[in-house]
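Record now logged for everyone:
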Amino acid sequence: MRESRSKNPVFEQFRGTKSGSAARSAAEAPVPFATPEFESGLLLDAFDAQLFRENSQTAVAKLEKHLSDFSIKGLELTEPASLSRAARALMAPDQTGIAAFDEKKLEAIIDLYVRTGIQVHSPGYMGRQFSGVVPLGGVIDFVSSVVNQPSSFYEAAQLPNVAERIMADELNRFIGWDQGRFAMVTTSGGSLANLTALLAARNHKFPHFWTEGSSLLGGQARPAIAVGSDVHYSVSRAAGIMGIGEGQIVRLPLNDKLQICMDQAGPALDAAERRGLQVFCVVASAGSTSVGAFDPIDELADLARARDLWLHVDGAHGASLLVSDTLRHKMRGIEKADSLTWDAHKMMFVPAPCTLLFYRNEERSRGAFRQTASYVFDEEVDVYTELDSGERNFECTKRPMIMPLWTLWSLYGRALFAEKIEYLCQLAESAHRTLQAERDFETVHRPEANILCFRYRPADLAEEDVHGLQVAIRDELKIQGNFFISKVNIGGVAALRVVMMNHRIAGEHFRMLLGEIRRVGQMLLGSDQGHNSQTGNRP
């Protein structure tokens, strides 16, 4: 860690005082600078405050209409060339001067933007982990876009940096690390958070790797990462970026619940050691992307500690269950982990990206990156720069992504998040029961959170046709545009996948989806059988 500036007499001589007029309390307003009249500089209508108000009112009116639409929508999939032509038609012609503002074009741009993406607020949206945001979160994100305060450094974004500290303390109440000894930084997405945590883990185990690279290893064992076979692809990417290589990823076998199998984890690590690999980190999933499975964090933590390994938990999806009294047990043992990725833009329902990267040990949070840059990093820490996060995350310019989360937490409290999360998980469990009562559907797993995977399998469907039918059903549903779902391969065979992210979804909507799947499936099988009766091939 950097030394406090107060310990350095040279800095003491020049730094002056932070008291009096140089440091105001939060309640004090700055004193206006009395100056004579100056020229107004360059006048640009695009920056006019009144025009800003009018543009904002146009956008708000359209978004209010969008949020008030409870109709069932999937995805209006538009051919890219057609969408490109529509977008180009809205662009100002090439000219030497600034084009005159066109209100109708603004309205058309907003309409096109809203219409051509996933409809996260519709009951027909069950496809991805992108959340329909709490509208107030979008309002605060709008404020962030206008005031434009990059939040890696306190002086540029003072409230966002304070809010990060506050939210770190608030959420750590559910993690359970020692107050004052842990750390949290925000990053732009779970993939970047996983990479950052793995860099910290590697540099902790191999302190000179950052400066000397892999050449320092010589003939020593090669650094490796152990993961569940169903880990998010960002971990594989991180291994490649870090120079570890996919060949040094040790994939731990899964049990029938698609969790890391503890009976086989130890032997798999032993086998990796015999191959000349030195595992420095185990990555557990808390809410895997494919099926929402939770690895046994408590047991993995004990295994990691016994072998002197860093335990990183990718809780991008499932860490939010910590705020629920009834679901927190899914994260049992999280207090033993070394780091945790938590995507608030998933089940905390705020605008993306908003990822929180927690470290149990504050000092180790500074180990991922090691640079000096006098234009941003101060040589000595004071009460202000102590809150800077630039040295601990990859980004220099970073959105103040914590502001929507902190505002919602401040105004509504934990219960807003807990109640919605609990409803969505109950909804997935109810959908599982519905599937079990349907003879022509197959459940692949019992949901641990709000992700559910299943297959449409009518009695006469040949085994070799199961995979292709699921893929075809999902593609046809996407084209028809009533429901938006996803797919995933489980055991090498495609399954249909729903993610309950919208509290407007009820059990009846899921039953409507099953009816649509059945109709589309029969249509596809019928067309195949008609084709095969002519060609003599079986479907």
About this structure: Confidence is low (pLDDT under 50) at residues 1-7, 10-22, 371-377, 530-539.
